[in-house]
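Recall that a protein's primary structure is simply its ordered list of amino acids. Everything else, from secondary elements to tertiary packing, is in principle encoded there. The following example makes that idea concrete.
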Amino acid sequence: MSPEGGWRSYAAAYAALSPRLRDRTFVVLGTSHYGTPDAFGVTAKPFRTPAGDSRPDAALVEELAASGGAAVRREDYCHAVEHSIEFQVVFLQRLFGPQVRVVPILCGPFARGARHGLPEDHAGVAAFVEALRTVARRERGRVFFVLGVDLAHVGRRYGDAEAARAHERGMIRVADRDRERLDRIQAGDAAGFWRLVQEGGDDLKWCGSSALYTLLRTVDGVRGDLLGYEQWNIDDESVVTFAGLKFREEERQSG
């Protein structure tokens, strides 16, 4: 989300991060606006920002590239022009220093599961999610997931016949539908969330759905807390919706 529109949600989400996370590797799942559908774009290059160069966790990037299957793409070009992860790197640098350690993963749209079934019905998606799940389990306590996503895109800029105004008329119903999806995300219900995405062929155009779904399938017992929900007129006739969330793992039961 553009910082000038989403600063409240960014502030709420990043305020939830503890200074104790400084030495973690941040696995950043971002929306891919330019990459291949049903694919995950990785890069081992650092991000160069006004704060300095980030540090790639090259070992984890190479592991995912080797074990993630045919859906993995080395997408240096897409990372160079994509803002969804780059914004998160800037904010992470502000909190934890310029050389924050990052594994950037661009999540392409899930075309195979757009109308029927689930995204992992695509063998490549299933293989990558399993590889990332293996890393998340093994490196629990060392990696930390951050998502660079937004939600609905409504109005003439996005191909709709009618203009949209934030929190007015049809956008009130959009807010209700957004919250239905956010409820499933907070509950860790990947399949239930995806059923809602499929309704109407995702007429809400949630471009962050693939990254959110990947998180829900990757982290065991993940649950979310909604910190804030917003709508923003990106122009006079079009609205983007977005939210700040924090995620946690449910306590594991023993015995």
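Residues 3-150+206-229 form one domain. The first strand starts at residue 25 and ends at 31.
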